[in-house]
Amino acid sequence: MKEYYTLVVFHEREVEKMLSKLNLAEKVEKGEIKCAICGKTITKENLGAILRKNGNILIICDSVKCIEKAGGLISAF
């Protein structure tokens, strides 16, 4: 069975707004969010992508390798 992911798209000027909307702003500020692929601590400056799968949120850092791997997840459509 195929797994489906939704890519949450927003402009970098809206990072704070999007993190607040997802109730993640405080966790990012505290360093509690890790990249779902490499485990690096996510900050507002290194946030690369947000994916949603079955109501769960996956945060990806801005590393080229992690973005490429995330792209592989998205291409499952």
Helices and strands in order:
Elements: E1 6-8, H1 15-21, H2 25-29, E2 47-53, E3 56-61, H3 64-74
Antiparallel strand pairs: 1-2, 2-3
Characterization of this structure:
With 77 residues, this protein is of the alpha+beta class. It has one domain (6-74). Helix content is 30%, strand content 21%. The protein has three helices and three strands, in the order βααββα. The chain has helices at residues 15-21, 25-29, 64-74; strands at 6-8, 47-53, 56-61. A three-stranded antiparallel beta sheet has the order 1-2-3, covered by helices on one side. The protein is globular, with a radius of gyration of 12 Å. The chain starts with 5 loop residues before the first strand and ends with a helix.
Query: How many discrete structural domains?
Result: 1
What is the chain-wise order of helices and strands? Answer: EHHEEH
The average pLDDT score comes to: 82
Radius of gyration, Cα only, in angstroms?
12 Å
Largest sheet: 3 strands, antiparallel
Distance between the termini: 12 Å
Count of helix runs = 3
Question: What is the approximate shape?
Answer: globular
Structural class: alpha+beta
Helix content: 25-40%
Number of strands: 3
Record the strand order, biggest sheet.
1-2-3
* Strand residues, percent: 15-25%
Uncertain regions spanning at least 5 consecutive residues: none
